[in-house]
Inverse folding.
């Protein structure tokens, strides 16, 4: 599960993408997302940056993934 603690690479990538899209698409704040995921706000901010970088590197866009 994404919200569970852990540093497994797949989980970190999934959590990072979730944070990036949750902040940029529906416009959640990093503070609200941190509460939902039981993480600190700085940890969520860092995950947003990782998620943005990952999405750009892979060419992933949320609307394209939803329509698969």
């Amino acid at each position: 599960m994404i919200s569970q603690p852990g540093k497994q690479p797949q989980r970190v990538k999934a959590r990072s993408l979730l944070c990036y899209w949750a902040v940029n698409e529906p416009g959640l704040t990093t503070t609200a997302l941190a509460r939902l995921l039981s993480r600190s706000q700085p940890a969520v901010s860092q995950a947003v940056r990782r998620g943005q970088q990952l999405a750009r590197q892979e060419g992933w866009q949320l609307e394209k993934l939803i329509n698969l």
